[in-house]
Design goal:
The chain is of the alpha/beta class. It has one domain: MTH938-like (Hypothetical Protein Mth938, Chain: A). It has helices at residues 55-61, 82-89, 100-112; strands at residues 15-19, 22-25, 28-30, 34-36, 43-44, 68-72, 94-98, 117-121. The strands form two sheets. A five-stranded mixed β-sheet has the order 5-4-8-6-7, with helices on both faces. The chain starts with 14 loop residues before the first strand and ends in an 8-residue tail after the last strand. The model has no long low-confidence stretch (mean pLDDT 90). This is Mth938-like domain-containing protein.
Length: 129
């Protein structure tokens, strides 16, 4: 799915495409999970499944003190262990959980509104047949 960037925010990190094989930020393809904020580099994120979230991976989401983390959990919406939300809430950071396609769209909307948002997008490994 291709997403169209808002030309007024051309300097910001925008999700420009998503498929089961990866995510595209500013027309650059990433075949793996990433963490992105409106400004700064796109960071590789070693999480391939929601069960892999732990204190260290969640703490990386809090870097820069966003007001909200949009977590894309792969092909389907899956909720992380409640300690994930609690860890972020303890730092006064909200958490929205959805499948990665919906998370991409939501991140773009919030970013375009000028919100301090972080997108954490899980790209699951391809299923072998």
């Amino acid at each position: 799915m291709k997403l169209h960037a808002d030309p007024r925010n051309a300097s910001l990190n925008t999700v420009t495409g998503y498929s089961a094989a990866g995510i595209e930020i500013n027309a650059v393809a990433f075949p793996h999970s990433v963490v992105v904020s409106p400004e700064g580099p796109v960071a590789s994120w070693g999480v391939q499944d929601i069960a892999a979230l732990d204190a260290d991976t969640v703490s990386k989401l809090a870097d820069g003190q966003p007001e909200l983390v949009v977590l894309g959990t792969g092909r389907r919406q899956r909720f992380p262990h409640p300690r994930v939300a609690a860890q972020l809430a303890g730092q006064r950071i909200g958490l929205e959980v959805m499948d990665t396609a919906a998370a991409c769209r939501t991140y773009n909307i919030l970013m375009a509104e000028g919100r301090r948002v972080v997108g954490a997008f899980i790209i699951e490994p391809e299923l072998s047949s």
